[in-house]
Amino acid sequence: MQNPSIVRAPLVAGLVVLTVQAAGAQPITPLEFKCMAKTATAGSKFVASKLKCVAKCWYEYWHSGSMASYADCLPPYGGVTAQCIDDTVFGLKGAENKFSIAIVKACTPPPTSQCPECYSGGDCTAEAASRVANDESQVDSFVPAIYCERASAMPQEQWCQRGVAVAISKQVAAEQKCYAKCEQNAFKGLILSSACLPPASDGTTQACLAAAELKSRTYIDGKCNDAEVPHSVPECDDAGTYPDGTGWANLVSVWVSGTIPESYCGSPSGAFVD
């Protein structure tokens, strides 16, 4: 099995607007920073929501007894799963819809909210559309690899694969919080702005990220461990190629670190350089 491909994308107490230090960079206002932080949080919630839609599909597929088709559970999805991801009826309840609405709500309209210039030229409605599409592609790159053993999956392999999805969504949220705290401290001027740029050099952030990775690795290795639960590790195309806890945690860390410059594009770790 091939490792999941990763799509790499190129809070508000801060009353201090940092001095422009990079050519052409604009200082970020507290409202713009609030927009960025809430956008990042909405992104991690989207990952969890979409993976829940997919996990439910696999659960029902494996427990329905019909074993007819698993196509609805894989990109581009179908049936109830597609509707769970994108509510085409009301445009409100799907994972995509909630993500887009959260960005627009957090970033518009002025003067109570403000969209950063680095977000689609200050158009956060356009930014919401592109952000949903980008984050969607990242989640979709993981799904076939997580659920790589399908019709032949035994109960313990099903449990493992669904467990990996849970761990991934929790790790994404945890690492986003680590970076958010770092970005907030940098915006306040408490630490150097470059300390939050992945790979973060801020010691507190490093420890936070390491703890998130360890928790994810431990959880996955507890669910997917042939030594403790025989035949729990999916074989997929080739036996032994399913990533272990460390493999999955590393992939997620690369994924999350790639989203930071995008989310905080005009903040200290984005456009500004110490």
How would you describe what is shown here?
With 274 residues, the protein is mainly alpha-helical. It is built from seven helices and no strands. The N terminus is likely disordered.
Helicity, in percent?
55-70%
Strand fraction band?
Answer: under 5%
Which structural class should the secondary elements be placed in? mainly alpha
Strand segment tally: 0
Note the gap between the termini. Answer: 42 Å
Main sheet overview: none
Instruction: Tell me the number of helical segments per DSSP (H or I, 4 or more residues long).
Output: 7
Low-confidence stretches: 1-24
Instruction: Please give the radius of gyration in angstroms.
Output: 20 Å
Silhouette? flat
How confident overall, as mean pLDDT?
87
Summed up, the domain count is 1
Which series of helices and strands comes N to C?
Answer: HHHHHHH
Briefly summarize what is shown:
The protein is flat and about 55 Å long. With 274 residues, it is mainly alpha-helical.
Features:
mainly alpha; 274 residues; 7 helices; disordered N terminus
List the SSEs and their pairings:
Blueprint: H1 30-63, H2 79-85, H3 95-107, H4 124-146, H5 155-188, H6 203-223, H7 245-263
